[in-house]
Specification:
Blueprint lengths: L2 H4 L6 E5 L6 H11 L3 E6 L2 H13 L4 E5 L5 H15 L4 E4 L16 H29 L2 E6 L22 H21 L4 E8 L8 H10 L12 H8 L10 E4 L7
Parallel strand pairs: 1-2, 1-4, 2-3, 4-5, 5-6, 6-7
Helix pairs in contact: 2-8, 4-5, 5-6
Length: 262
């Protein structure tokens, strides 16, 4: 098998949670589709996912939209059953969804309920969707789980980049993203001998039209000199989903423009 063939995802079935989202999700789904995978996107809005899947099909790719609420155990099981009924198996699971309603406010402004809301999707949902699909992967002896964490799961945020803005980095975000990284290592160690690989990607700050002072201060700090864009995470996802990374598991790949090297 040539090196380019090892990057191909032809014949693979891939699920991307929040895979129709305007930030990482849609970019990830597109990359997997371009690499040849049959891509399923899923989030709370079936209509949004169906619409985005249609856009991918119009571009010549094999894509489908489904629905899942990661804070609802029954919804996760319904997604699993629907996907397996339609496609027979799952080869690649990309967990890119984030329970943003629980990530708001400074530490002194947050409550136990704030933390429980963030944990409902980002901890319980992550655990349950992996739990739902792992038996099928181990039965087939092959699978790749890719969790989308953050630089803030590895290092704390730099408060100085928020100066001159009303932006706040909530502590719940750091908490769940750090937990995701170590949960990935757990999956890698327990399921590696059954053919399932688990890796994490920790992106840097994503440009989303933040206030100018923040963007300027962020870009000055990061070695590459700019914020992360839509295309920057795509190669890492395809690499970890494909046979090109067949001997890589339990890793946290930093896609941060050198932020954590400082």
């Amino acid at each position: 098998m040539g090196i380019l063939d090892r990057f191909s995802l032809r014949g693979r079935i891939a699920l991307v949670t929040a895979g129709a989202g305007p930030l990482f999700g849609s970019s990830i789904s597109q990359a997997l589709a371009e690499a040849g995978a049959t891509v399923i996107t899923a989030s709370r809005s079936r209509d949004r996912n169906a619409q985005y899947a249609e856009e991918l099909r119009q571009a010549g790719y094999d894509a489908h939209g489904m629905q899942v609420d990661l804070s609802d155990s029954a919804s996760i099981l319904r997604l699993r059953d629907e996907l397996i009924e339609r496609f027979g198996r799952l080869d690649v699971l990309v967990n890119s969804a984030l329970a943003r309603d629980g990530h708001a406010g400074r530490l002194e402004e947050q409550t136990p309920d704030t933390w429980m809301r963030s944990a409902a999707g980002d901890f319980a949902g992550l655990f349950q969707i992996c739990q739902a699909f792992l038996p099928g992967m181990t039965a087939k002896g092959r699978g790749s789980i890719i969790n989308i964490s953050s630089i803030y799961g590895v290092v704390s945020n730099d408060p100085t980049i928020y100066e001159g803005t009303d932006m706040v980095q909530p502590p719940t975000y750091n908490f769940v993203k750090a937990g995701m990284i170590n949960f990935t290592r757990y999956l890698a160690c327990y399921y590696g001998k059954q053919g399932v690989r688990a890796n994490c990607i920790s992106p840097g700050g994503y440009f989303n039209h933040q206030p100018a002072p923040f963007v300027e201060q962020y870009c000055k700090r990061v070695p590459i000199g700019r914020m992360l864009g839509n295309d920057d995470i795509q190669g890492a996802v395809v690499f970890l989903a494909s046979d090109a990374s067949a001997y890589i598991t339990g890793e946290n790949l930093m896609v941060d423009g050198g932020w954590t090297s400082l």
